[in-house]
Write a structure and sequence with these properties.
It is a single chain. This protein is of the alpha+beta class and 113 residues long. The protein has one domain. The strands form 2 sheets. It has a 5-stranded antiparallel β-sheet with strand order 1-2-3-4-5, covered by helices on one side. It is globular and about 35 Å long. The two termini are 16 Å apart.
Length: 113
């Protein structure tokens, strides 16, 4: 997986209107925590913690076929974005089914290893 160091993350602050489906997904994903990801998907292959400064830290939970990235805000980890196993940032709406968060490990379970 190359996303950890090589993918470009989408800007969530944009002047272009956000699709309503994507906006609803972002609102739902705001409550996603690293603990919830590991509870649902198990222990990640790598749990990266990077700090550019005391006020600029991020955490990456890297699994075989995807990763979930968080930034630290006000002393707690907040969902930032997810990427597939090829380094492509995933639309937030791909992680939501109705009013529930569905992580890639949940919908990849039926695929051959």
């Amino acid at each position: 997986m190359t996303c950890l160091l090589g993918c470009s993350k989408p800007s969530k602050t944009t002047l272009t209107p956000v699709d309503p489906t994507e906006a609803a997904a972002r609102k739902l994903l705001a409550s996603l925590t690293p603990e919830k990801v590991t509870q649902v998907c198990g222990r990640p292959e790598k749990d990266w913690l990077k700090a550019y400064s005391a006020n600029n830290r991020w955490r990456v939970l890297q699994y075989k076929d995807f990763e979930v990235d968080f930034t630290e805000k006000s002393g707690r980890w907040e969902y930032d974005f997810a990427a597939d196993g090829y380094g492509n940032t995933m639309p937030d709406s791909e992680l939501v089914s109705g009013s529930e968060v569905r992580l890639p490990c949940q919908w990849l379970q039926g695929l051959p290893k």
